[in-house]
Amino acid sequence: MKKKLLLPLIFLGVLILLLIPARFLWSEDETFEPPNEKSPVTDITVDTIQTNLARYEPGQPIKFDAELSEKPKNSLDMKITYYHLNDVVHEKIIQVDEKKISWEWTAPEEDFTGYYVEVSPLHNQDGNSTIGLDVSSSWDKFPRYGFLSDFSEKPEEEQKSIINQLNRYHINGLQFYDWHDEHHQPLKPEDDKPLSSWKNIANQPVSYGTVQSYIDLAHNKSMMAMSYNLLYGALSEATEDGVKKEWRLFKDQEQVKYAVHELPDDWKSDIYLTNPSNGSWQNYIFDQQQTVFDHLTFDGWHIDQLGSRGDVYDYNGDPVALDETFKGFLENAYETFEDKQLVMNAVNQFGQKQIANSSAPFLYTELWNPFKSYEELNKVLKENEKLSEGKKNTVLAAYMNYDKSNQEGTFNTPGILYTDALIFAQGGAHLELGEHMLSKEYFPHNKLEMSEELKNKMVSYYDFMVGYENLLRDGVSSAPLEITTENWVRLTSQPEKGQIYTFAKKQDNRKIVHFLNYFDATHMNWRDTNGTQSEPSVKGDLTVTIQEEKEVDEVWIASPDWNEGLPTKLNFTQEDGELTLTIPKIKYWDMVVLEYN
User: Fold this and answer.
1) Is 470 within a domain?
2) Of 93, 116, 135, which one is at a domain's C-terminal end?
3) Which of 36, 189, 227, 495 could form an SS bridge with 374, CB 3.0 to 4.6 Å?
4) Could you give the CA distance from residue 221 to residue 196 in angstroms, rounded to a whole number?
5) Which residues contact 593 (CB under 8 A, 6 or more apart)?
6) Which of 158, 150, 201 is nearest to 180 (CA)?
């Protein structure tokens, strides 16, 4: 009799276990809640998502805010899914009855890790939206550099609006461009107190209160604030402020003609170059920079230069190899400012080898001719990877729609996306976003606006860069790639018009293959200087064969151009060292990941 009862009970217990959904729980205090059975089918969508910071410390609370397309008529179930690469690390259902919703999550303990967060109505998963998430204890491993350039008196609400927008792009460092008074004396206190206002080199008004307010607002979003200045600049009257002739650079051995960077007549002064390797000049400018740090809570110094200046000589008539002075200047600056960050610009790669071998945390290149094409842009990114032995990431100051911005108008969205796709796929970042998008080397220049379409695309691309930072920028190295297709396009190993550029990176247990689509490109000029680049059509069903001897366990794809950036598993076959798969669609950029056993 007992045996007859025991068998049904066992069967019933197994049945109950099978009906309980298994969920991966990130922490004990969060549980997967079952959906509300009364939630109706809905056409409500998630319009926007925002996080409260640009990056998070491991274990730090994360606050999310989202806005729905409309207020639910009844209680609505929202599914929140947290991804790391193609793995779901946590899921949660929350019930909402307002148009604006908020919730929190605790950042995982693993440092320097990117996540994607998806929010969708449970009964309308096509109404989803996503956001990237960076858990990093410092900004310099995955720098996402922005800028500020207008420090006139302005309402705090206007400043907050600008910082909040940059926060949505996950900008984690800000270059405060030309905020200072004079290059050789960036801040001139009176009676040991800073002036309330002054004019910068271009005679534009600067408010001390605005500068400090922006620094505070940046810090409130976990953004670093970097004080911009040259390493070797002095104005015409600098001798009155203690800059000695013996520290200057000259264009002749007889010290008759100063080395000068000419500026417009209505600016304060031309810039007279000093010798970066001169110890007395270093002590002078370091003291001036310390005055800045004493009165403004900057996190570091963005050190600028002016590129190759041809032959220059010191006060003794000896030739000076400017690029060879950079490393020594940087190392002495690091010893002087131990608790500050230092970043240095390599204009057209001038001095980049020395900077890469210094303590600078990442590389920064301002691009000019002859780096015109996508291929030449690509070479700079790969050269920086080689110079730093893959240990330092790159930020490019690359100015878009340069000639178009001579008149008022809007940025050309395809030109921006082609360039960002290449930079991001190669592990770089693009200095382009501030109060406005950059189009000129003079950062306050602001004649082109971003369309709403471009603003939304920038959100998608920056989410993608953050969500997949561990595949794009985290110790990946170049890998060989043998790939072919018999479909509608030729695959190339360099960017070429009318083709798809493919290349691979590798990590220990995976290979990352990038597909950059130039099939419909009007031209191959990354700057898209006149704004004539055309939008590519969406192509589909690209079947490729990759030579791959290692056994592949899984293949997945992601793109900033479709599926909200989320990973999608792909079917594949692998036989005799050949792996075949089909890419469902491509617009600008697809990323395919091969996961090995």
Assistant:
1) no
2) 135
3) 495
4) 25
5) 85, 86, 471, 510, 511, 512, 513, 555, 556, 557, 558, 567
6) 201
Confidence band, pLDDT 50/70/90 cuts, at residue 32: very low
Per-residue pLDDT of 296-326, as tens digits, reads 999 999 999 999 999 999 999 999 999 999 9
Asked, for residue 2, whether it belongs to a domain, the answer is no
pTM exceeds cut of 0.85: yes
Per-residue model confidence (pLDDT) at position 126: 87
User: Hey, is 340 helix, strand or coil?
Assistant: coil
> 156-168 and 208-220 are packed helices; what angle lies between their axes, rounded to 10 degrees?
40
* Residue written as token pair 């000695």: 244
Nearest-CA neighbor of 564 among 23, 125, 36? 125
Contact assessment for residue 91 and residue 41, using Cβ atoms and an 8 Å cutoff: no
Q: CA angle, corner 417, sides to 414 and 418, nearest 5? A: 85
Integer CA distances (angstroms), 212 to 166, 167, 207, in order: 17, 18, 9
Q: Report helix, strand or coil for 195.
A: coil
- Domain co-membership, 549 together with 576: yes
Q: What is the DSSP string of 335-374?
A: HH-TTSEEEEEEETTTTHHHHHTSS-SSEEEE--TT--BH
In angstroms, rounded to a whole number, what is the distance separating the alpha carbons of residues 272 and 249? 8
The number of folded domains in the chain is 3
pLDDT confidence of residue 40: 53
